[in-house]
């Protein structure tokens, strides 16, 4: 069902310049749209409540035309709301059940891979402000703090609005980088605040990294994870094993698939294969949570084994590539390649530093790190 079926404008632009409908009419359109979604059968009361909230946003942001356009984005708001409703319901139930002792720090919620941040925006309106300190929207696409936002970055204008009942903030982090995960845990749990992790539509390895973060710190008392795409075939091709710090492991081949989206169409593994592997993926992700939080040592050991396996795979691939290259060479050419090998290996380890004088007595330091293996070569 499209919004046009209800005689209402498709996007916010038309909303403003064409048929201007009242907030009540617009809210009714949103409600009708959501009624056609399967999730309405189980979460009708919550979705109706969220429609009222969205109508209040419409009134609040109406004068900021471009911003309201980004929030509504045609049918996007309705679609996103339907997708996050089960996570909102469980998060709300967990907060309601939480008994915070007098004077203890309030809960911090991390919404991992938040994208625009619809989940956080609805939670800000629905959760009790006396129990939740703030909601942090974590994504790789926010501009880092103290760096000017560029076109490629997410625009945080809606997040910065001062009228959110529970404060929303952004945090730029790459979840695949262990130090970024450690920084997140340190930044938001250091004051002893209990914390929740939410992750909706986390593609491939991001789901694993979300669980790593959750397991890394006992301050996290709640995790809601909705995985998205399955890991890519590459992981199976190189024989990867996914291993949790609690000792659970499984072969990447059991879940990896070939395929990609192109202009809204999936090209790759069949629906049957996708469904079968998705169930295996979810069951194994759940197993990483079994047995309580693992120790930091166990997590470090698992990470070390993963890095060692990856290094071995890369070294094997380099060897195969080298052998393929040698196969076409004459005996003399091979001997010459072997003779130059030590020099080549040394060059591959070299860190080159170039100091270029600029005008106004400034110095520009350009550091070109070829392959940093810990071997520093004297500057010539
Ligand atoms: C499929 S979207 C999900 C967005 C939102 N949670 C939702 O359900 O609509 C995936 C999000 O993950 C973010 N992302 C991708 N790789 C990431 C990484 N390595 N670290 C943190 N965020 C990442 C993207 O910028 C994007 O916003």
Automatic annotation (TrEMBL):
<dbReference type="InterPro" id="IPR029063">
    <property type="entry name" value="SAM-dependent_MTases_sf"/>
</dbReference>
<protein>
    <recommendedName>
        <fullName>Methyltransferase domain-containing protein</fullName>
    </recommendedName>
</protein>
């Amino acid at each position: 069902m499209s919004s046009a079926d209800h005689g209402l404008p498709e996007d916010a632009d038309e909303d403003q310049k064409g048929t201007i409908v009242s907030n009540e009419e617009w809210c009714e359109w949103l409600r009708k749209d959501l009624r056609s979604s399967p999730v309405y059968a189980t979460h009708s009361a919550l979705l109706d409540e969220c429609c009222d909230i969205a109508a209040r946003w419409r009134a609040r942001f109406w004068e900021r035309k471009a911003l309201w356009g980004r929030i509504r984005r045609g049918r996007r708001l309705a679609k996103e709301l339907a997708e996050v409703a089960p996570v909102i319901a469980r998060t709300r139930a967990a907060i309601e059940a939480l008994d915070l002792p007098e004077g203890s720090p309030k809960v911090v919620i991390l919404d991992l891979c938040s994208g625009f941040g619809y989940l956080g925006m609805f939670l800000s309106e629905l959760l009790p402000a006396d129990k939740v300190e703030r909601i942090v929207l974590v994504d790789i696409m926010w501009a880092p703090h103290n760096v000017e936002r560029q076109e490629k970055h997410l625009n945080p204008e809606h997040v910065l609005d001062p009228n959110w009942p529970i404060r929303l903030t952004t945090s730029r982090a790459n979840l695949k980088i262990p130090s970024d995960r450690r920084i997140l845990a340190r930044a938001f749990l250091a004051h002893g605040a209990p914390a929740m992790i939410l992750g909706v539509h986390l593609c491939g390895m991001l789901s694993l990294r979300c669980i790593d973060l959750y397991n890394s710190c006992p301050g996290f008392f709640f995790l809601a994870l909705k995985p998205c795409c399955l890991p890519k075939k590459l992981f199976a091709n190189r024989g990867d094993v996914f291993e949790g710090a609690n000792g659970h492991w499984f072969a990447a081949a059991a879940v990896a698939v070939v395929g990609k989206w192109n202009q809204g169409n999936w090209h790759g593994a069949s629906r049957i294969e996708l469904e079968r592997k998705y169930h295996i993926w979810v069951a194994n992700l759940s197993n990483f949570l079994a047995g309580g939080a693992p120790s930091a040592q166990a997590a470090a050991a698992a990470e070390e084994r993963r890095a060692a396996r990856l290094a071995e795979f890369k070294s094997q691939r380099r060897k195969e590539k080298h052998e393929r290259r040698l196969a076409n060479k004459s005996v003399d050419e091979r001997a010459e390649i072997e003779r130059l090998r030590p020099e080549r290996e040394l060059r591959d380890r070299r860190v080159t530093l170039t100091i270029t004088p600029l005008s106004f007595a400034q110095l520009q330091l350009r550091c070109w790190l070829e392959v940093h293996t810990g071997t520093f070569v004297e500057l010539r």
